[in-house]
């Protein structure tokens, strides 16, 4: 595993990493966009999950909620990846050993796996749920797991600066 810390060190010393770290305004500007991306990503995921749980948007068809929110979810995710990579480049060595950062990355991976499983298993039948009184139990459980994972991602991200 010597390769990863070496890569992190190289990344920090790269022109991009150095620019982000040394600029008075660049890191806070990127972090602001990162927070906006998080708001879009987690907000749209939470809205869909709350619909699955039957706690919000109950009069809106599940397939309509998915169709309307998914493009925004992907936009938020793209912003997160781009700005997260820039922020990481400025202090990769420090982040690599930070337990909160590692937890955040683990939770993001788990949320991705959960979303993929949901899409492949339950998500194939979204339109069929539109006519049902309640979303299937498995989908509700998937929504609960998803929202809990994303709450964990946000919390771990917030803890990064304090550990």
Overview of this protein structure:
With 163 residues, this protein is mostly helical. It has one domain (3-14, 24-162). The protein is 82% helix and 0% strand.
Radius of gyration: 18 Å
Q: What's the tally of helices?
A: 8
Mean pLDDT: 92
Biggest sheet descriptor: none
Question: Which strand-content bin applies to the residues?
Answer: under 5%
Number of domains: 1
How far is the N terminus from the C terminus?
22 Å
Report the order of strands and helices.
HHHHHHHH
Number of strands: 0
Structural class given helices, strands, pairing? mainly alpha
* Dominant shape: elongated
Low-confidence stretches: none
Helix content: over 70%
Set down the secondary structure blueprint.
Blueprint: H1 3-13, H2 15-22, H3 26-53, H4 62-90, H5 92-97, H6 99-122, H7 126-129, H8 137-159
Helix pairs in contact: 2-4, 3-4, 3-8, 6-8
């Amino acid at each position: 595993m010597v390769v990863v810390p070496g890569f992190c060190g190289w990344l920090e010393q790269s022109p991009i990493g150095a620019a982000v770290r040394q600029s008075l305004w660049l890191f806070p500007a990127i972090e602001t966009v990162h927070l906006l991306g998080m708001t879009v990503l987690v907000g749209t995921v939470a809205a869909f999950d709350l619909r699955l749980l039957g706690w919000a948007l109950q009069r809106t068809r599940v397939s309509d909620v998915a169709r309307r929110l998914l493009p925004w979810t992907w936009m938020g995710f793209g912003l997160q990846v781009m700005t997260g990579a820039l922020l990481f480049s400025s202090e990769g060595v420090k982040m690599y050993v930070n337990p909160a950062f590692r937890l955040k990355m683990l939770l993001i991976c788990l949320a991705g796996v959960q979303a993929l499983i949901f899409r492949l298993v339950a998500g194939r039948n979204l339109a069929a749920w539109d006519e049902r009184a309640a979303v299937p139990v498995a989908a509700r459980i998937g929504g609960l797991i998803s929202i809990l994972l994303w709450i964990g991602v946000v919390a771990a991200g917030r803890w990064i600066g304090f550990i």
